Amino acid sequence: MEGLPWEYTWSIPQDIKSLVSLMGGNMATEKRLDLMFVPGLRTTDLGVGVASGTTLFNPGNEPSFFTPFIYNYLPGKQYKSVNQSRVNINENYATGDKGLPGNSDAGAMDSWMLWQMLGLYPVVSQPVYLILSPWFEDISFPVGENGKTLRITAENLADDGFYVQSLKVNGKTWNKSWLTHGDIANGGRLEFVLGSNMTVWDTGAVPPSPGHGA
User: Fold this and answer.
1) Residue 86, SS3?
2) What is the pLDDT of residues 123-143, one digit of tens each?
3) What pLDDT shows up at residue 7?
4) Which helix (H) or strand (E) holds 195?
5) Element (H, E) at 20
């Protein structure tokens, strides 16, 4: 597994558990993942709209979409996914000319950003959402049938206060860095409390890897 191309991990979220094991465990995986976001390690041009001082992670190409959120699969490291989400959007998305990194490909880049701004990220081929951190204090939108609504609130949201301190899902205190589609398919409420501390609130089970051992 030496030299694994991280940029292709978007296609194998079914078995992150095996990926972490082959990397040498949680700590080794974290260190290798951290390197993906060190500015200046990539010397090649990543194209229009991508920030200078580029990282090994390519924010302008779909195969890299899942990479920043692998931190959610490491116990207590959800805050690093949140941090990379903020950094990547702030550096690579803007209004006006060249406001998207790379080619949007019929909305891929746009939807990637918007999911993160809601505080969620859908896992490919699974009824699972990784939890990030919302960019809105209070937002609601329809889900499912019969006029059901999902409401997402963010208490204490600030420019320097976007890390999750605690979370309630449908009134229940939550300690997992993910939730299932069933948790929100018929509406509900996600209540975030945010702050500037990189708090380890995600003490529950990591997201599932249904392909592990298959």
Assistant:
1) helix
2) 988 999 999 999 999 999 999
3) 44
4) strand 188-195
5) helix 16-23
